[in-house]
From TrEMBL:
This is non-specific serine/threonine protein kinase. The keyword Cell inner membrane does not apply. Its cofactor is Mn(2+). It comes from Arachis hypogaea. One of its GO terms (biological process) is signal transduction.
Amino acid sequence: MSYSKNDAVVETEPTTPPTQNDSTVLFGKYELGELLGVGASAKVYHATRVADGGSVAVKAVSKRNIASNCHAANVEREISVTRRLRHHPNIINLLEVLATKTKIYLVMEFAAGGELFQKVAHGGRLTDDVARKYFRQLISAVKHCHSAGVYHRDLKLDNLLLDDDGNLQVSDFGLSAVKNQIRPDGLLHTVCGTPAYVAPEILAKKGYNGATVDVWSCGVVLFALTAGFLPFNDYNITVLYRKIYRGQFRFPKWISCGLRNLISRLLDVNPETRITVDEIMQDPWFNSGGYKLNRVLVEEPEWEKSQIKIKTLNAFDLISFSTGLDMSGLFVNNGVLNHVERFVLREKVERILEKVDEVAKGTNLTVTRNEKCEGARLEGQDGNLVALVLVYRLTDELVVVEVKSIGKMNCNPNFMSCLMDNGHNSLEF
């Protein structure tokens, strides 16, 4: 999956305007078909790839709807997080992001099997073996998320999809959280989630651990799969929350002792004693018949990578550097990338990197370089990432230097002026 500027973000209108009787073709690539669902700020369509006739799902998000509320942050987070979690077999894959003047399109894998919710709603409770299969795949996906520092916070049957082979796919990361959102007390504080699946510690509004609330939601899902109904349900939202806070639910008579034990540990109202993901994978019911975890390497966020080889820029890259077309906010983690400076130098790459070393020494920064890449990682005395310096080739004589500041520290003016050699050989973008 690629997010290169050449094909991931395009600022143009669809080739065919939408009409009632005529399908819309996006960028000559995807022909929109059946409307699959409607959300607060987005519509999801089944679409067909023009090139090969394959199926994809396209989430169309109106910029007008997200411009003035929290939905904008949700869209940014969904793109950034799903990109980080790509390649796991049980997490929906974001294939491409496209944009017009009015909409953002998220092109995703198409889950032909629909929502797991529909399977339970139409067929009733599942057998232990079928439920175990889905629950194992859910825990595999959740473990992968947590290892990448991502907490879904809205796991529910509606967000669990099934692919062509009937395998589970976790979707909708719009309410997810990442580690840099954790406050100094070590907890998350945003109240979010779906009422019937929300953990009691979220209701307490005193902060919570993202991993434990995901485990609680997994417990609600497992109960629903094997019982055929939700453990906590009431038309009165106050009564519902009281039941959740107190952990008041009843097992149907057909739930086995081993399964009751696991669900009870999942739905433990005390997050400190609630079962962990690693402990779930050691549970006898979970391991019945044998189980092998899918191990997938976690994608390192782009802003953390230092092995970026020098690249020859094309016209599209130069245009995309314009702030008016800059959509980089959709591809970085919230709160991480604060400031970007770019300028052109008539200088050799090695000399630029030597200059970075010289300037960094004078500002008490540590520089880490890699011989296989044209860039440097600058760290403060506490070992935290402060900035990335990346070099792109413009012509045989000219290069573009990009300085990205990280966290709360903006690019130091002295550092910038020294690096540009007082402006004699530079042209700032």
